């Protein structure tokens, strides 16, 4: 038996799908944060910012890239208000500055020189900074400033 769909059935289906898409599109959204991140006054070229919720904070961890000092945690991250551990990781440039030359053992001076040059040309290791951070609402003008700790040289 062939069944035909009446206009009211089609209308009901369209209304149901419209209501469902409205609910999904207007679902709960989180807090958005954006701003700049610097180390010793210079923008972080490449890195990552993470907000890790402290105990009893009902929020997921939110992460975003840092590019040329700028970051944005969008509302889709579902970030909520509360206390967080703020972690900033600076991504080291992994492009070697020079090609390594492999030398046969035997010439200790040449091997030592090659090792010293390789260490000098090696990219810097990744740095990370941690701080406490309180989220109390969306903010587009956050200024994160970090300073490297300098260790005075030891006397011999």
From TrEMBL:
Region (Disordered) location: 120-156
Name of this protein: Uncharacterized protein
Taxonomy of the source species: Bacteria, Pseudomonadati, Planctomycetota, Planctomycetia, Pirellulales
Signal peptide: 1-24
UniProt feature, compositional bias: Low complexity: 125-136
Originating organism: Rhodopirellula baltica (strain DSM 10527 / NCIMB 13988 / SH1)
Top-rank taxon: Bacteria
Residue spans of biased composition, Basic and acidic residues class: 144-156
Alphabetized UniProt keyword annotations: Signal
């Amino acid at each position: 038996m062939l069944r035909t769909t009446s206009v009211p059935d089609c209308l009901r289906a369209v209304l149901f799908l419209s209501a469902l898409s409205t609910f999904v599109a207007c679902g709960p959204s989180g807090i958005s944060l954006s701003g700049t991140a610097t180390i010793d006054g210079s923008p972080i070229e490449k890195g990552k910012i993470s907000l890790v919720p402290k105990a009893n904070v009902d929020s997921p961890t939110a992460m975003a890239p840092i590019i040329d000092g700028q970051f944005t945690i969008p509302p889709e991250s579902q970030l909520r208000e509360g206390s967080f551990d703020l972690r900033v990781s600076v991504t080291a440039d992994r492009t070697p500055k020079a090609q390594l030359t492999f030398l046969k053992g035997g010439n200790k001076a040449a091997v030592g020189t090659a090792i010293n040059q390789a260490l000098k040309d090696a990219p810097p290791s990744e740095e990370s900074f941690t701080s406490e951070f309180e989220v109390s609402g969306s903010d587009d003008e956050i200024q994160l400033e970090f300073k490297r700790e300098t260790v005075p040289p030891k006397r011999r």
